[in-house]
Amino acid sequence: MCEMRLARKRWTICTISILLIFYKTTERARSDEHQEAQLTSEGELSTSRLMVNSSEKVLGKNLPTYLQSTQEGWKVNATLVTMIRKDILRFLDAERDVSVVKSSFKPGDTIHYILDRHRTLNVSHTLHSLLPEVSPLKNKRFRTCAVVGNSGILLKSGCGKEIDSHDFVIRCNLAPLVEFAEDVGLKSDFTTMNPSVIQRVYGGLRNETVREHFVERLGMLNDSVLWIPAFMVKGGEKHVEGVNELILKRKLPVHMAYPSLRLIHAVRGYWLTNKVNIKRPSTGLLMYTMATRFCDEIHLYGFWPFPKDAAGNPVKYHYYDTLKYRYFSRAGPHRMPLEFKTLKMLHSKGALKLMTSTCRQA
Ligand SMILES: *[C@@H]1O[C@H](CO)[C@@H](O)[C@H](O)[C@H]1NC(C)=O
Ligand SMILES: *[C@@H]1O[C@H](CO)[C@@H](O)[C@H](O)[C@H]1NC(C)=O
Ligand SMILES: *[C@@H]1O[C@H](CO)[C@@H](O)[C@H](O)[C@H]1NC(C)=O
Ligand SMILES: *[C@@H]1O[C@H](CO)[C@@H](O)[C@H](O)[C@H]1NC(C)=O
Ligand SMILES: *[C@@H]1O[C@H](CO)[C@@H](O)[C@H](O)[C@H]1NC(C)=O
């Protein structure tokens, strides 16, 4: 009993130290390039997530002030937005890297998985026929954009109207909308989907019922972009193929996009150069990074990787399911608290707006 307590205590102290290191490293990034170069191939891109199980203890009732919401008086700094856009353009061009295009491949070509270079994927006729001819973001420019993460912080936020009022709305992992419209809105211009969603939510598209359910959800996209990271790791290719076949067969009105083979490394490179040592950027961070290319003002919603809100109330991991927070793991792919802290800092400088409170009703 006593030993267990001691172990727990140590664990807590250890966790606090690690968190402190995370939070204090922006100025002093350590260059463990070697370790970081070994990207793990486990898992996929996730949205707004945190692996810190013990963070309940650390962040429990009293959030550090830098995590508390300061939405009042936020103003965009257009100079800084332009600087960031230019900086990111040195690493990636979202207009190009948002998707591979048809002319780059022919059916039968082999692609090496980005995070698993030893394994390969054959470009099928189905996949090839769905590749866009040109970037779905070609010549796009928007005044305001929303990037919507999937944290439970959105529940009871009443942010639906505000989210839908943006010129371009980016959503993650084909999250459900209709039942949550008041809090998350309905407008979708760009929606990401990890292949694993097909297994987890749509029963592998194995029967008519689940296929209809999926077709209905895609209908909500209303002819906008569905972005599938299909070349990250082996495992989801069967599902990607199933989705593609269904889209072709039913002539579903969606514009497909499959991120370029260099996108994730380029995004990581940008943040690393800015002393944010992220092993594997989350979908949310990827979307923000890409959005800087074509949005003058970026508002983030549903980004909250903590099990409690600022008032100490529990916050669901996803607003729509019962997935639990992951255990803290240094081997895990994402670094949500670090990402969050970075976004918070950018918020305070007017580079983006990180919305973590309820929205004022018009
Ligand atoms: C972590 O979470 C699990 C299940 O959610 C719980 O049983 C366990 O006590 C938690 N551990 C700590 C250190 O909070
Ligand atoms: C906007 O950002 C730039 C670059 O960081 C900075 O020099 C400038 O002072 C900021 N302007 C305001 C009004 O904060
Ligand atoms: C890819 O195509 C090659 C040649 O057509 C074939 O030998 C190989 O088995 C295929 N690989 C997969 C994963 O389907
Ligand atoms: C279809 O598949 C889903 C998920 O695998 C399952 O829950 C459901 O019962 C199946 N429906 C029929 C009609 O077979
Ligand atoms: C679907 O798209 C059209 C054209 O972009 C737009 O006018 C309409 O409002 C959209 N409908 C929904 C439900 O988002």
Topology:
Elements: H1 2-24, H2 33-37, H3 55-59, H4 78-89, H5 94-97, E1 110-113, E2 116-122, H6 125-130, E3 142-148, H7 160-164, E4 168-171, H8 181-184, E5 190-192, H9 196-200, H10 208-219, E6 225-227, H11 237-249, E7 255-257, H12 263-273, H13 283-291, E8 295-301, H14 336-348, E9 353-355
Parallel strand pairs: 3-4, 3-8, 4-5, 5-6, 6-7, 8-9
Antiparallel strand pairs: 1-2
Bound molecules: 2-acetamido-2-deoxy-beta-D-glucopyranose (5 copies).
Catalytic activity: [N-acetyl-alpha-D-neuraminosyl-(2->8)](n) + CMP-N-acetyl-beta-neuraminate = [N-acetyl-alpha-D-neuraminosyl-(2->8)](n+1) + CMP + H(+)
GO cellular component, one term: Golgi membrane
InterPro entries: Glyco_trans_29, Glycosyltr_29_Sialyltrsf, GT29-like_sf, Sialyl_trans
